[in-house]
Amino acid sequence: MDARIDLFGNDLAATFGKRFANAAMVIHRSSLPATTQELVSLRASQINGCGFCTDMHTKDAAAAGETQERLNMVAAWREATVFTEAERAALAFAEEGTRLADAHQGVSDETWARVREHYDDDQAAALVCLLALVNAANRMNVIARTPAGGYQAGMFAAMTT
């Protein structure tokens, strides 16, 4: 598949991408567990059909020590026994917050209550911001048809200032 536009090679998009990476760094430095961040990002990317982001979050998670078994089970997390209750709450949140058009009410009160059982105010805020950011990244890459498979773990770390 060929990209419609190289978002990494275009000056305007690259400038935007640097700001985007800086926003992501705020979330990365939060107290929301890094594992949870990658699982949420991966699940949203799977739902949105973003091959580039699915590739990126799978590789970043693996480089951070995530097991292949857990990565394989993200799409079927409800039936998997390898996730904690906190991770399950975050994955439910990721699905409901990503599928806004499918559920006009967005994240259910039940799911939000489960999130709040496991995450404090800063972590809940990080979850909201993370999901907004990953959904935006998914949309940009799907629209641009950014090819998947060439990402190297951590390759965007140098973009932040």
UniProtKB/TrEMBL annotation:
Gene3D superfamilies: AhpD-like (1.20.1290.10). Residues 18-96 form the Carboxymuconolactone decarboxylase-like domain. SUPFAM superfamilies: AhpD-like. GO terms for molecular function: peroxiredoxin activity. NCBIfam families: ahpD_dom. This is Alkyl hydroperoxide reductase AhpD. It comes from Pseudonocardia sulfidoxydans NBRC 16205.
